[in-house]
Amino acid sequence: MHELEMLIASKCFCWNSITQIQSPPPIFSLPAPIPQWSQGQGFASGFVNLGEIEVFKVTRFEFIWSSNAILDTKKVLTFYKPVGIPDSFHILGHYCQPTDKPLRGFVLVAREVEDRLPKTTDIDNHNKIPPLRNPLDFELVWSPNVGSLEFTSVGGYFWLPQPPEGYKALGYMVTNKPDKPKLDEMCCVRADLTDECDPYCLMLSSSSGTPELSFQVWNLRPCDRGMLGKGVSVGTFFCSSGLNLGDELPIACLKNLNSSLPAMPNMQQIHALINHYGPTVFFHPEEVYLPSSVAWFFNNGAMLYRKGTSTGEGIDTAGSNLPGGGTNDGQFWIDLPSDDRKNFIKRGDLKSARLYVHVKPALGGTFTDIAMWVFCPFNGPATLKVGITNIPLSKVGEHVGDWEHFTLRICNFNGELYSIYFSQHSGGEWVDAHDLEYIDGNKAIVYSSKCGHASYPHPGTYIQGSSKLGVGIRNDAAHSSFYVDSSIWYEIVAAEYLGDVVTEPQWLQFMREWGPKIVYDSKAELDKIINSLPLMLQCSMKNLLNKFPMELYGEEGPTGPKEKNNWLQDERW
């Protein structure tokens, strides 16, 4: 799938001038081949039209330079030049990644679109200066030889292109010689076709008492992300020597001005993607509060309550009598029935469970996010871990109506699974495809934690609190016979970019809480636990509990998927 052209014979020189031979990192491929996707628009065509420019994803690289491999190898970065550039495309910047990770990154290359744009684009291409131009010069940002009397012929040299007026640089060039790159080796992009980007995830930091000798490297992501965001990640990096991150970045990302989003999958392709990549969700072997379908929840006694009335109203199978739209104003909520059905509904119904799917553009339509929502009628109580002691909590964490999700990020250039986001209470994490567990071909495993239903990529005990101290709320995830195969048991409930192709269910429009406000004295329960601890731990424990999300205390019922921030916004990185 991916190819690598390494200059194995090249030498890597560390910052202390010690030479080493650079070994190629392993190249990651998914466990099974990617199928031939059905034809339709521009999905998986290899190219994405952004308006006045078209971009191509490059995954073949040539080694240039690596940071000091004598130091901690987990902090070593390797820098690459993209190769195998299609005719008429231009390099926008170079690529880097940690040396200990499989090679699976990308950078975008670009070319000018010759044909006049369709009316659906957001730009007027009359009387515009060219979208791409070579830089006027290159400025040396940093080299390990900075500070020496003269540059040596070895080492890494980081060059920032100096764009013409009205243009932006989108990346850096890295060389292993002190000579400036040739101006025609890369292009800058017209400013109105770019957007601001955000440095995140510091990958490398070399501190020094002399500012010009220090060096930092960050990943980059567009500032304008989310379902409606136009920012496009180029795959390049940001580096600096002593720059304050409060300053304006000298580089940008791309902006997708093609509002038709031609690279997004159609309905047939969406089903094919879910059938091929849909993960299997494993619940803990001791899980009591299993998922169910929304229809099962309604049919078995869920009640709609209105503020000011004590009697609830039954909800029909489709939720058509739920008030739609508006905001979470506290006027309505859902609760369990007060009769004998209550405990029965709490336990869910695994055989009816399904994943509710929201498909949306990501990173300016160059990726597709397939958010998969699972519904559990009840969220069980938490367990507090203090060192080797586990303390079951009787109420803390309980609430009616639990919505959790994970998100598959699919590359629209080739239809490949790029990463999965695992939602975990008030946060979560993106996990690259090479760090996932797979159960069947390219179908990953998602582990749902006991009682709380947070999502994790691997089995184990995860501490919500201080893992270093071993103090916090336990999240236990394990393989079991309780599972849901999302590649089979799913329902697509929303895909706004497709217009009226997907009819959203009425229950999705319910913006109020899927559980009542629970009032109990959680403080008394927690104070009792804190007071039983050694004095040296009591203060730390109080501070730790104050940082827990409010949802853990069950004070408010949870809202449905459409009220969550990530419905429109990007996941919390």
From TrEMBL:
Pfam family, one: Vps62
PANTHER family given in the database record: GNK2-HOMOLOGOUS DOMAIN-CONTAINING PROTEIN, VACUOLAR PROTEIN SORTING-ASSOCIATED PROTEIN 62
The protein, known as: Putative vacuolar protein sorting-associated protein
